[in-house]
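Hi all, long-time lurker, first post. I run a small reading group and we've been trying to get comfortable going from sequence to structure in the token notation. Rather than ask abstract questions, I figured I'd post a concrete chain and ask someone more experienced to write out its structure so we can walk through it together at our next meeting. Sequence below, copied exactly:
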Amino acid sequence: MSMDPDRRASAEAVYRLSTAQMRQLSLTAVSTLSALERRGPQRISELAGLQGVAQPSMTVLVGSLEQAGLMARRPDPSDGRAVLVSLTPQGEEFLAGRRRAGAERMSELVGKLSPAEAEALAAAVPALLRLRELQEEAMESGNAAGAASPSKVTASAPRSTAAKTPASKAKQSE
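-- Answer (accepted) --
Happy to help. Here is the structure in token form:
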């Protein structure tokens, strides 16, 4: 039984709205959307390289995100055989909504900190913002991890002594 195109479009829109809250996207899917937001339209092969996945896996992911209305494909003007993938307005709103929700959750948690903890966090904000810049620079340069590889991490890395628990302080004084 075929459905009238307008009715089908309406049904798909309602379905997407009704399942949007139930369905969570994978970290790779969100990272791919974010990469498109930062870098603009990309080929599937470029996205696969950025995310560290095989091209067929990225093709499947792009198909799912395209079906959900979060990204779209269009011909690559520089190579008619290739396509570019871009973020749709719905994809932009999804990312913005995700960030808003995350900021609200974080704000609630910060509200539960003691005054001393809140002051320490406020003092750390410039360093945290710099870390974000460094991460974005690493992402732009193609180093998706943005950090040292596990093989470069050594056992002699310094441990933080800033947060000692009452139990650890009691053991030290014994």
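A couple of things your group might point at:
The longest strand covers residues 79-87.
Confidence is low (pLDDT under 50) at residues 17-22, 144-174.
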